[in-house]
Every structure is written in C-alpha cells, then in structure tokens.
Amino acid sequence: MTEDLNNYKFSLKNDNLLLETFNLGIEKKQILIITINREKSLNAVNIDILKSLTNILNHVKNDSNILSIILTGAGNKAFIAGADIKSMSTYSPEEAYNYSVLGQDLVKLINSFEKPIIAAINGYALGGGCEIASACHLRYASENSIFGQPEVKLGIIAGWGGTVNLKKLIGLGNATKLLISGNTINSDEAYRIGLVNMVFPLQNFLLSVIKEVKSFCQNSPNAIKNTLFSINSSDNGESYTIESDLFRDSFKHEDSSAGLSAFLKREKPKFK
Ligand code: DAK
User: Fold this and answer.
1) Is the pLDDT of residue 257 over 80?
2) Which of 16, 37, 41 gets mutated to test ligand 1 (max ligand atoms within 8 A of its CB)?
3) How far, in Å, from the CA of 81 to the mean position of ligand 1?
C-alpha cells in the first residue's frame, strides 16, 4: 500500500518537509502525507519548518482533491523532539515572542483546519512536538512513542498552545502534571489518559495510520468540515496571547538561558 505513495508537486524552499500523496481510488481524491525531514536532529522544529508547514497547509486548504492530511516525522525515533533548542538558545525575548507567535499561528491553523489533520507519532513527541500533535484532530502513535512537555526543565514554558490544548484533550489534572513535571509518558499511558486515539506496532506504522484515515475519507467532506468547525468553535484567542506574553517573560529570566545552554552542553541546569 505504501508503494501507492506519489510525490506531491509543491515548490518548497528547502527539503525540510517531504510531501507525498496516497490515492484513495475515488476520482482524484488523495490523502497528503507531510513528513518533517530533520532526522539527525530528531525532527526538531526550526523556523523554516514552521514557515514551510504553514505554507503547505495554506496551499492545500482549498484543494478539494486532498481529503485529509497525515503529519509524521522522518525515521523511526522521533515525531518531533520539540522546538529547535539550538536556534532557540540564541533568541532575545522579542525573537522568542515572534517565534512563539509563528508557532502559535501554525497550531491555530491546524486546530481550525477544515480537513482532518492526523498526527502519526512515530517516536519522541516532546515540547513543541507534543503541542503540534495536540493541535491535530487525531493522534495515532507507534508503540515506541514518548510524550512530554519538558519546557520547565529548560527554564521556559510551553509556547505553542500546550497550556491551551492539552487540558481539553486529557483534562486539567493530567495536563498540569505533564506541564509542571516535565516528565515523559509512553504510548500506553498516553492512550490511557486520552492523549492518543490509537496505538499501533512500529512495523508498518504509516500503513496502519493510512488504513484508518482512508476509512473516514469515505464520509462526506462537507459534513466532516462542519463537524470540525463546530468542535473548534470555542474561542481560545485570549489564552494564546497570555501564553506568548509569558513565554517572552521566560526569556527575560536567567533560567531560560541556563536551561537551554545546559541542554546543548549536556549538563544539568542550575536554576535560580
Ligand atoms: N532541538 C535541537 N536539537 C535536538 C533536539 C531539540 N529539541 N532534540 C534532540 N536534538 C538533537 C540533539 O542535540 C542531537 O544532535 P547532535 O548532538 O547529534 O548534533 C540529536 O538530536 C540526537 O539527540 P540525542 O543525542 O540527545 O539523542 P538521545 O536518544 O540520547 O535522546 C531525547 C533523545 C529526545 C531524549 C533528547 O534528544 C532530548 O532530551 N531532546 C530534547 C527534548 C526537549 O527538551 N524538547 C523540548 C524542547 S523545548 C516556543 C514554542 C514552543 C516551545 C518553546 C517556544 N515559541 C514558539 C517561542 C517549545 C519548546 C520546546 O519544544
């Protein structure tokens, strides 16, 4: 079935994303598969990826042949290991704020997208990676996946809707625990608390996800669109603003440079 994947023609400025389609066999209808392609950095998300993802989603928004989108990571170790700590460690508070807004615009675009976006989580989904997955409409995980919001260990706070979306998915208590402990959980626990919808073996993982997505692509695209709109109709704009203000504030505090640079030096951070 994966041999049915075809390249999707869309001009990207770099090869940070791989774009493929799976033909559904209904006229020209397809599923678009977007792969974040930074395997050596465990698919950590830099500014180019944020921009490319936003561009491609805006491009396919009105493409009636694309019925659904699967977002996954290259390799079999990580979906997205978070925001790119190497880039982030150089940010001023204002740059951190702008990066936050760019990421938040992306998660809001995913959240409000009129076609189902499915996170195919194939390994680490940490920090910004867990937040991007949480913004998707559904989450399918491979059994080796690891989830967490380790930002507090870096002296920063979640910046892409973690404090907004997680509590809707897994409830206030579970969300608070993940966000303030910085601890990770495995796929079984993620399934138990409702963070993921299904767990599949790593072998043929993408194939299993495609099979699932294919099944609901048989339903009315218009009814799905209206269902997603109705689900997402509550306004969370204010919460996002508070989150980016506080994210900027964390870059004014010395703990953020202590935490970010300690990660890069592979040392334990010393927080004030
Ligand atoms: N950023 C950059 N590089 C990363 C990375 C990351 N998040 N995670 C891993 N890498 C890189 C490593 O530096 C290493 O690169 P080299 O040293 O080989 O050049 C390579 O990927 C392989 O990683 P490891 O050697 O560490 O592999 P291990 O198997 O030993 O460990 C790990 C895997 C996932 C447990 C470990 O890499 C790890 O702890 N990674 C960091 C995970 C993390 O803390 N993620 C959260 C990042 S903070 C914001 C929006 C959102 C956020 C913040 C702001 N705004 C919009 C402003 C969110 C923040 C985050 O996501």
Assistant:
1) yes
2) 41
3) 5
Give CA–CA dist 189/203, Å, rounded: 20
Sheet with 78-80: list strands edge to edge. Answer: 78-80, 124-126, 146-148, 184-186
Whether 94 is in a domain gets the answer yes
For the question of whether the overall pTM of this predicted structure is more than 0.70, the answer is yes
Q: What is the DSSP string of 231-266?
A: HT-S--HHHHHHHHHHHHHHHHSHHHHHHHHHHHHT
The answer, yes or no, to whether any atom of ligand 1 lies below 6 A from the CB of 79, is: no
Specify the CATH number for the domain of residue 223.
3.90.226.10
Q: What is the pLDDT of residues 100-153, one digit of tens each?
A: 888 999 999 999 999 999 999 999 999 999 999 999 999 999 999 999 999 999
Q: Give the separation between CA 265 and CA 115, rounded to whole angstroms.
A: 42
CA angle 115, 121, 126 (to 5 degrees): 110
Range of the domain at 77: 2-265
For residue 21, give both structure tokens: 């389609």
pLDDT surpassing 80 at residue 156: yes
In a domain, 272, yes or no: no
Distances (CA, A) of 76 to 32, 38, 103, 199: 19, 12, 24, 15
Residue 233 falls inside a structural domain: yes
Question: Dihedrals φ, ψ of 29, to 5°?
Answer: -70, 140
Tokens of 82: 């978070």
CA distance 32 to 59: 12
* Residue 269 DSSP SS3: coil
